[in-house]
Amino acid sequence: MHILLLASAFNSLTQRVQAELRDRGHSLAVQLVHEDGPVREAVRQERPDLVVAPYLKSAIPDDVWSVHTCLIVHPGPVGDRGPSSLDWAVHEGADNWGVTVLQANAEMDAGDVWASASCSLPPVGKSDLYRNEISDAAVEAVLLAVGRFASGTYTPTPQTPGAGCRPLFRQSLRRIDWQSDSTATVVRKLRAADSQPGVLDELLGGEWFLHGGHPEPRLGGRPGALVATRDGAICRATTDGAVWIPELRPRRAPGGPATFKLPATSALAGRLSAVPERPAPLHRTGHDDTWSEISYREEAGTGFLSFSFRGGAMSTEQCQRLLHAYRFACSRPTSVLVIGGGRDFFSNGIHLNVIEASADPGAESWANINAMDDLVEAVLTTTDRLVVSAMAGNAAAGGVMLALAADEVWCRAGAVLNPHYRLMGLYGSEYWTYTLPRRVGAAAADRLVQDALPVSSAAAHRLGLIDRVIACAPRSFDSEVGALASRLAALPATRSRINAKKAERDRADLAAFREAELIRMQRIFADPHHPYHGLRRAFVRKERPASGAAAQRSPLSRG
Ligand code: COA
């Protein structure tokens, strides 16, 4: 079928639905919807067999849904309605949730039900759930609905009678009362608002949206007080403990420019002098559950270097910290080293927000890309053990290339990869000109970077971009990877692979690849008129890029 996807943004779910439907032989067009106009025009132009809206915040015009079957993906179980489904679910501590595919009609989320799927809701942030458990359930329901529609014989069932629409989840409900809220309550409020819109709060004389939240098991203090910093996050005391808050966004002044998130310590720079830095141990040996961005553990002779950066973004400092930890991991007596996180994003490359906030974004882009390259180089030149990239979730641009530097790349089935830089106007670095063609061949590498389309893990596997797809629920990824890595470490062939790898790397002139890529990147960073700067500015502020730069991000794309 020819399917038109309507979306308010080309977000992770829209990308995954596009990639999964394309994998099943459908042709796809994606229309980004900012107002009514382009919907009618896109439908006229595309003449789709079916319209699917994986993520749509506005209503589909009557003259479109009354002529074409339009399926809306609603992130809630059958009977749930309203614009803040997941916020309510996390707020109420639901253990199980679901996704429903409804037919668009005149009333919000009230149309007939074409399919639904259920999922668990582990205690993590809302957008992490959205990219993982909800995304898995949404794809299951969309594929079922599309199959039913294609059969031509299926009659959708009416929505549960009397199902009421739950209201928008407002800031007044999110408010934290530091004098009376426990750690569990504060974490729940932060998670229901993560990553958007955050929880509006007051701190050190300013108004901020707090983003992200992790319980701290040992620290504490006067409720509301800042008691520590770590990995760019601040730790704030509750009535019975403390929570880590990784990012802050200043409240937008009336009529002022859009603001954006930054690591909390950067946002509060200069105001935190009396707050001690309390680093967590890198090498975790016992049951140490304090939060940190990076940690290392060993199991059965295999090393696991875990990292998890907000939004998958890696600043210069985060790259340097990870490189330091990587070197430590390489000093350990293991034959297999697994790098990656337990859930969600693997990496999305350089930290565009930190770059945007710096006094000289061109110079900071340069520092950040060099720090990424140093890290990738360390992985590429590791010749005394096998390195495995374990991708629990999505990755893009330099983040994909970081994964490709490893000897094996394992990916959770639900992950979506964007192995290209064009949408940010960049040529790219991270040794991609070495690793990408080596994996998929020159022609496919060219197509991937030029087409700039999201790729499902199954398609990535077919292309040779990754080595293994792990079909499991997000919560099982860590243990599946652990078992596979131990098996790999025990294989007699592993030793001979390590020897062969050393010989291959000795032959590759890695420095030449790095230099050629960086020459192109330096030109981009140094040219204030290059589209990269406008695209970055718009990306971090969640604005539409100005028309010149927007040519890189077409509102109607095909795949
Ligand atoms: N720097 C800073 N923040 C980043 C980021 C980056 N490189 N990549 C993603 N993020 C942030 C997003 O702003 C978003 O923030 P929010 O939660 O406050 O909305 C969050 O991470 C999740 O990203 P989002 O865009 O919502 O996820 P997605 O799954 O819908 O889309 C991408 C994923 C990767 C396609 C998109 O985030 C992207 O284009 N990122 C930039 C990649 C890039 O060009 N990197 C630089 C070159 S190496």
Structure description:
This protein folds into three domains: about 1-150, Rossmann fold (3-Layer(aba) Sandwich), CATH 3.40.50.170; about 175-265, Methionyl-tRNA Fmet Formyltransferase, Chain A, domain 2 (Roll); about 295-480 and about 485-540, 2-enoyl-CoA Hydratase, Chain A, domain 1 (Alpha-Beta Complex), CATH 3.90.226. It is about 40% helix and about 20% strand. It contains 21 helices and 24 strands. The strands form five sheets. A seven-stranded mixed beta sheet has the order 6-5-4-3-1-2-24, with helices on both faces. The two termini are about 15 Å apart. The model is unreliable at about 550-555 (pLDDT under 50). The chain binds coenzyme A (COA). Coenzyme A binds near residues 127, 195 and 424.
Specify the CATH class of the largest domain.
Answer: Alpha Beta
Number of strands: 24
Q: Counting H and I runs of at least 4 residues, what is the number of helices? A: 21
What CATH architecture of the largest domain would you give? Alpha-Beta Complex
Instruction: Tell me the name of the CATH homologous superfamily of the largest domain.
Output: 2-enoyl-CoA Hydratase, Chain A, domain 1
Number of domains: 3
The mean pLDDT is: 94
Percent in strands: 15-25%
Rg over alpha carbons? 24 Å
User: Under CATH, the topology of the largest domain is which?
Assistant: 2-enoyl-CoA Hydratase, Chain A, domain 1
The largest sheet is: 7 strands, mixed
Q: Percent of residues in helical segments? A: 25-40%
Structural class based on helices, strands and sheet pairing: alpha/beta
Ligands, ions, cofactors: coenzyme A
Low-confidence stretches: 549-555
Strand order of the largest sheet: 6-5-4-3-1-2-24
**Overall spatial form:** globular
Q: Separation of termini?
A: 13 Å
